[in-house]
Specification:
By secondary structure, this protein is an alpha+beta fold. Helices cover 47% and strands 15% of the residues. Helix 7 runs antiparallel to helix 10. Bound molecules: flavin-adenine dinucleotide (FAD).
């Protein structure tokens, strides 16, 4: 993996204004961390289908996890820009294995916003330290987009919930020590009967299924999870009973922004690498980039990448001010994921047969990017969300 590219982007649009010097200083820390603790091991993790537990603890020690968590619990109390930098460095190094953003920016906020003070004190410091790894389980074998159709139930029994059902495609599912499970507490009430309940990884009746084989994200564990009469104390409920759907709606824009930020940096980095490759590779006695068709493809890509960078940074700035709307986050995710897939396909083509080889980054980036159009709400669901505002 090549880590020689300049940090922070900005080659396409001039200096970026979304970050401060303090953000960029943090980028140095994150960058050094990735060079030392992630890049050298990533190919092995791809073969293993999972990253090491150790890298999580190392990330905790280095202050890479949960930058937004309040200092009271061991975080840095920082803004989302610090999280975005971690996401960008993952994209820049093409090391998609460590599920840090899912943990820090998707799972932890639910717990920090909605758990009881006792549970926060118990879990959050360990989550910042990388000793507790988080996951969130919405999707089931029979449903993904249509959350109200979920079949997993949580029945109240005295001071406990009893959870039954199964989930699938759960990121961090093998490693997770704490899973936010979305379950029906009132099965007759559709989306108004969903609750979010935390299940510890060692709860009796909780079982992990296969670490699923995927076409990309090979170092990222993605699992089936099974719940058979799993009893958890009612104190593990997040927020209020039956309000889970509204909590999901509130937090999903940040999840979508994570995907958009990753797309913007991924496009920029892979464009740069493709330009380098096509300058070096010769065909019919000239560099591949010298064929007008290829140069025009790359020129189009550069123009689009610049446009998306400006839009993604705009959304980032809005989110840092607490002003990112649901539909704008959906637009950023939709445009970023679709553009990334289209451009990566062109970039791969420009690499010829080498593009298809796993040892070339573009091939892995291409297969890793495919999921961007599906998870966090598919492109079609993003269009639905935007369409409702017309
Ligand atoms: C690698 C990976 C990691 C994941 N991580 C997690 C995780 O950590 N936690 C979690 O809960 N889930 C996770 N998921 C699940 C993911 O969020 C779902 O796969 C996704 O939401 C789509 O749901 P589905 O697969 O059931 O597709 P379906 O909902 O069955 O959709 C099938 C097709 O129909 C389309 N469609 C559905 N509804 C509409 C509509 N109203 N209009 C038009 N088209 C529609 C979809 O866009 C899609 O093209 C992950 C998935 C993968 C592959």
């Amino acid at each position: 993996m090549d880590t020689s590219l300049p940090p922070g982007g900005g080659r396409l649009t001039g200096p970026r204004t979304v970050y401060t010097e303090a953000h960029e200083a943090f980028r140095d820390t994150v960058r050094r961390f990735f060079e030392k603790h992630v890049v050298p091991y990533h190919r092995q993790w791809e073969r293993d289908g999972i990253v090491s537990r150790e890298v999580w603890r190392q990330a905790g020690e280095a202050g890479i996890l949960c930058p937004m968590m309040s200092e009271e619990y061991g975080g840095a109390g920082a803004d989302f820009g610090y999280s975005a930098i971690v996401i960008e460095e993952i994209a820049r190094t093409n090391c998609t294995g460590p599920g840090f953003p899912l943990h820090s920016d998707i799972v932890v906020p639910y717990i920090e916003d909605l758990a009881t003070p006792e549970r926060k004190a118990e879990w959050l410091p360990k989550m910042a330290a990388g000793e507790i790894i988080g996951a969130i389980a919405m999707t089931e074998p029979g449903m993904g987009s249509d959350l109200k159709a979920m079949r997993t139930t949580a029945r109240r029994d005295g001071d406990h919930y009893v959870i039954n059902g199964s989930k699938t495609f759960i990121s961090n599912g093998q490693l997770a020590d704490l899973v936010i499970v979305c379950a029906k507490t009132d099965p007759s009430a559709g989306r108004k009967g969903i609750s979010l309940i935390c299940v510890p990884g060692d709860a009796p009746g909780f079982r992990r299924g296969r670490n699923l084989e995927k076409i990309g994200l090979h170092a990222q564990d993605t699992s089936e999870l099974f719940f058979e009469d799993v009893r958890v104390p009612v104190g593990n409920l997040l927020g209020e009973e039956n309000r889970g759907f509204s909590y999901l709606i509130r937090n999903l824009p940040q999840e979508r922004l994570v995907i958009a930020v990753r797309a913007a940096m991924g496009i920029e980095v892979m464009l740069e690498k493709t330009v380098q490759y096509t300058k070096e590779r010769q065909a019919f006695g000239q560099p591949v980039i010298d064929f007008q068709h290829n140069r025009f493809k790359l020129a189009d890509a550069k123009a689009q990448a610049a446009m998306f960078r400006v839009f993604a940074d705009h959304c980032l700035a809005l989110h840092m001010r607490g002003e990112l709307t649901v539909e704008l986050a959906a637009a950023a995710k939709l445009l970023g994921a679709e553009m990334q897939n289209r451009l990566f396909d062109d970039f791969l083509q420009l690499h010829g047969g080498y593009g298809y080889m796993a040892e070339y980054e573009i091939g892995r980036a291409w297969s890793d990017a495919r999921i961007g159009r599906i998870y966090g709400g598919s492109s079609e669901i993003m269009r639905e969300i935007i369409g409702r505002t017309l």
